[in-house]
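In this section we turn from sequence analysis to structure. A common task in structural bioinformatics is to predict how a protein folds when a small molecule is present, because the ligand can shape the pocket around it. The inputs are simple: the amino acid sequence and a SMILES string for the ligand, here zinc ion. Study the lines below before reading on.
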Amino acid sequence: MKFLVENNLSKLGKWLRFLGYDVEVLEGPINYKDLLRARDRVFITTSRRWEKTLKNLGIDYLVVPRHDWELQLSMVVKKFGLNGELKLNLCPYCGTELTPIRKEDFKDRIPTKAYETATDFTLCPSCGHIFWKGKHYERMVETIRKILKNL
Ligand SMILES: [Zn+2]
């Protein structure tokens, strides 16, 4: 399942990418051109104004409340029966598939603490970000568990 999210839902988009889902974030306001181009994606929006148009275009969509990204994520997971497992295989910033790396090869770009204690280092070949499983990973697991528990 692939998603297109409105540009005020980038945090939701990031979390859907953590779960391994293909997400495109709208760069500007909602418009026909982007909606038609991304017809094969489910559109997640906070706006009811486009509902009729979306129905007419036959685009699958979900309206979520503004601001509360945890609620947004739980709604999307529930509505589409998503797998709530943290895959961490996609770059949260640009959605590109991450490549596993040896930390030794990128020592100058990894903070010392992370270098010594973290695991599973990956690189985004597109935007160049480096990721690893460190302390924040435990928090992410906890967050997703909390969200899924409330479904
Ligand atoms: Zn990237």
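The mean pLDDT is 95. As an exercise, try to locate the residues that line the zinc ion site and compare them with your own expectations.
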